[in-house]
Amino acid sequence: MERNKALAGFTLAEILVVLFIISLLSALTFANYRQGGKQMALQRAASKLAQDIRRAQEMAIAATECPSGTACAGQIPAGYGVFLCITGGCNNPTQYILYADVDNNQYFGAGDSIIATSTFESGIIISDIDNGPNPKRIAINFKPPDPEVKLKFASGIGNEVATTTITLSLGSLTKTVKVNKAGLIEIQ
User: Contact 81/56 with Cβ under 8 angstroms?
Assistant: First the structure.
């Protein structure tokens, strides 16, 4: 029995159509993968910031001694906090500071001790700090034993707000971290 050679394979047009469909699906998948990777990086940064704020809160509740290697090593400071600033002399939108409130003013300053400086992944910045009267900087401070939570945009009395919203950006993508005076931390 002899076989018909015309029915035995694929035409060039059929192969080209299949290759086009495969390359189109691959391109769409890769584009979504890149976008998903950026979204995950932004989520990691927001989670790390929230985790560091909780870490300061826990250190204050536990009245933890300052870690060795810091200026206040061995001391129990008045509290702990996280300082973020993207304007003025402290303009660094790629990082924030975890500090020990040694001078008991519930704001980050020269008398305090830096516990850690955290830097975001490449491309991620703090694009906005919305806290009302003086945006672009905030000290989230926890003072034991309750802990008392202070959200201050400057040192001194009366420079507090009830809530702050920190916006992280990676290109056109954003993620916000909200903190209120009760110490509730929310990632949106």
Answer: yes
The answer to whether 83 and 89 are in contact (CB under 8 A) is no
**pLDDT digit string, tens, across residues 58-102:** 999 999 999 888 889 889 999 999 999 987 777 789 999 999 999
Q: Number of structural domains, the chain? A: 1
Lowest mean pLDDT among 8-12, 32-36, 167-171: 32-36
| CA–CA gap between residue 117 and residue 187 (Å, rounded) | 21
Which structural domain range is residue 41 located in? 30-187
Residue 23 lies in a domain: no
- The helix/strand/coil state of 100 is strand
Residues 91, 116: contact at Cβ < 8 Å?
A: no
Nearest to 52 by CA among 12, 93, 96: 96
CB atoms near residue 50 (< 10 Å): 18
pTM to 2 decimal places:
0.80
Those residues with Cβ within 8 angstroms of residue 107's Cβ, 6 or more apart along the chain or in another chain: 81, 101, 139, 141, 150, 152, 154, 155, 156, 159
Contact 180, 96 (CB under 8 A): no
- Using the CB atoms, write b or e for 6-41: b if 16+ within 10 Å: eeeeeeeeeeeeeeeeeeeeeeeeeeeeeeeebeeb
Residue type, 127: S
